[in-house]
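User: Um, what's this?
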Amino acid sequence: MSEPVVAIVVAAGAGSRLGGEVAKALRTVGGRTLVSRSVEALAAGGVTDAVVVAPAALQEEFVFELADAIIPVLVVPGGRERQDSVRHGLEAIDAAAELAGSRFVLVHDAARALVPPQVTAGVIAALQAGAVGCVPVVPVVDTIRQLTPDGSRVVDRADLRAVQTPQGFERAVLVEAHRRLAGSGTVVTDDAAAVEALGHEIVLVAGHRDALKITEPQDLQFAEAIAAGRR
């Protein structure tokens, strides 16, 4: 039997930049919600169980939406900040007897609902090969300018990479990283930064353009086009 891999799906954001009255993770692409697509995409890449961190006031809606998921899903309330939500997800894994033995954990943004299976599989493979932390990345294609006191300057994009999710970690290390964050009050932009702060190396694997983060209205249009192309 293969080793279990649990994913925390962060879906507690309101999605104010996306607009509308529906929570972002419950918005639809191709007739299906972002959160259900995310869980299915992760399962296709090798995830065996998921913990979905959803808005506290919408627990029932998320449970209903994920009732027919192809892998076991546990829905738990999110926190004020993204890292609080991830910590809640880690606590839920520890409290669930069927999940507490998992060695690896992936953290995925529900807004990246179209992540291809090979990206998730690559993250899992890196963990199984010994990586403590792993993130998928894509090359930066835009010209980047950095603001300076005197104006701005072009940054060489050849050495730049844009980070995506799912990000994968040894669960014990991620738990310790979030314990320290909670104790210090430090805010980080992603989980890899928290693990890196402990002195661990982060391994990079290939991401994919399809795993775009749906943040603004035009992103929904791009996602609809990708989903239609897959059909």
Notes: The first helix runs from residue 34 to 44.
